[in-house]
Amino acid sequence: MEHLRIPLWQEGSVIEKFPTLNKNEKTEVTIIGAGLTGLTAAYLLATNGVNVVVVDRDRIGNGTSGHTTAKITAQHGMVYNEFISHFGMEQASMYFLSQMDAMDKIEEIIQKHEIKCQFEKQDAYLFTNNEQNQRKLEAEFESYRKLNIDGEGLLEIPVNFPIKYALKMRNQAQFHPMQYMKALVDVIIEHGGKIYENTSVYDIDSNDHRVVRAVNQQTIVCDQVIIATHFPFFEGEAFYSARMYPSRSYVTGFTSNSKYPGGMYLSVDQPARSLRTVQHNNQEIWLLGGENHKTGQYNENNTPYDNLKELAQTKFDVKERMYEWSAQDYTTLDKLPYIGRLNKNREEIFVATGYRKWGMTNSMVAANVITDMILQKDNPYIDLYRPTRFHADPDLKKFITMNTNVAKEYIMGKIGTKNDEIDQLKQNSAMKMKHHGQTIGLFKDSQNKIHAVDTTCTHLGCEVNWNDTEKSWDCPCHGSRFQYDGAVIEGPAIEPLNKIDFSN
Ligand SMILES: Cc1cc2nc3c(=O)[nH]c(=O)nc-3n(C[C@H](O)[C@H](O)[C@H](O)COP(=O)(O)OP(=O)(O)OC[C@H]3O[C@@H](n4cnc5c(N)ncnc54)[C@H](O)[C@@H]3O)c2cc1C
Known about the structure:
Elements: E1 25-32, H1 36-46, E2 52-55, E3 71-72, H2 80-87, H3 89-112, E4 120-128, H4 131-146, E5 151-154, E6 165-174, H5 177-190, E7 194-196, E8 201-204, E9 211-214, E10 219-227, E11 244-256, E12 264-267, E13 273-280, E14 283-294, H6 304-315, E15 318-332, E16 338-341, E17 349-353, H7 359-374, H8 382-385, H9 392-415, E18 429-435, E19 438-444, E20 450-454, E21 465-467, E22 472-474, E23 481-483, E24 488-490
Parallel strand pairs: 1-2, 1-10, 2-7, 4-12, 10-17
Antiparallel strand pairs: 3-6, 4-6, 5-6, 8-9, 9-10, 11-14, 11-15, 12-13, 13-14, 16-17, 18-19, 19-20, 21-22, 22-23, 23-24
Helix pairs in contact: 1-5, 1-7, 2-3, 2-4, 3-7
């Protein structure tokens, strides 16, 4: 069978379609973005009697939440030792507790509404096959002891990855994110919430922050706004663009002749590897992920899907390869998400972003924190995740490194052109060239038609690079992605890349 380039979660997805916003709306809270963050916030607010309108520029769950691997865990890589040394025991402990609370709340919602979303408890494992990371994982286990995290250091794991050491966190979970989001949607609608799809929001009024403006000229007047757009498309002078970077990962789904022994796995070595399984169409599908890299920074010989395929074939006795997909997430300067008020002057605008590929629990943390702020209830985690925090030491070092990297990408992109002949360009490939002094991107389709775009990202003017694996123009600075013809796929950009008339 030909494998599918879509996430398994979306195959046969049953979430009903919602209309485009075609009239002005008035509500208490507008939620922009219908991924796990936006829908969970809408669910919590609507079930607390608040009027909500949710808008998404695409379809529900078609962002990162529909492209995830959906492990629900507080084991977020080797973070606890680092958090203890950067922020102290109390903050590190708060981080862990907030994530475990979030996992419990997800389970509560699933039980309350009897949601069939394959929620099941699984142990989570970090593992390494090198001595340097073994020492780091042992130190991480020491931090588990200090924070009373239920874990265990191991010299063997039940799956066929070679290891020197592994660290287990017991009693974590996994689910099917689209089945879960469908149930949230049903409850939001039952409680009077409204949802609009294919409605891109481009602005929150600068004079009256309670007016949300959609691209099709409709407006939503409201008391509060939650920006749940993954990267905040509206930054309100809070410089999120300078405080986060995007990175992509790839997933392959296959059946195997071997029986899966259970567990959710993540290597801490490079290239990172992630593994879990899911029951789908009466088959056990193994989801193997990895091949992370910063969005927009591609090595020409990069073949992420082939690398995963080869690994799967060597280690996991592949029967049939069935799915492939990729997605990206954002990491903040200090690795803690930004959740709360957009900035000090924008009391009525909230944001949730920067989950570092741990959005199942973090979207619930965010929805809870923001809902409690809107309902004027106490929440113990408000300070920890406050977007305006500043943790001087680690922040500053990373700020300089990351901005150097962004500046380098900006400059290299602008001057680093190739002058290959267009004739030699293969079908379904792209290249850059100078045209009237301007760098343009050319894509040759399977009918030999050339599609030419200005390679200046319409978000903040960085230079996009060609991603040959996904056939897209990707921005290395803030993760906006565009189709070969310039149409926006994802990220903070609202406008497409400018098309270039290449005939003169
Ligand atoms: C490969 C991969 C694997 C992952 N695996 C895990 C995992 O195992 N466990 C885990 O905890 N986390 C995981 N994550 C992270 C997790 O999937 C994300 O953090 C989470 O899904 C983000 O949810 P969100 O709702 O904030 O964003 P999204 O799901 O991206 O939703 C944002 C929505 O906003 C909409 N939008 C954007 N701009 C606009 C606009 N201007 N107007 C209107 N709508 C707009 C988009 O269309 C989108 O639907 C993974 C991430 C990746 C990349």
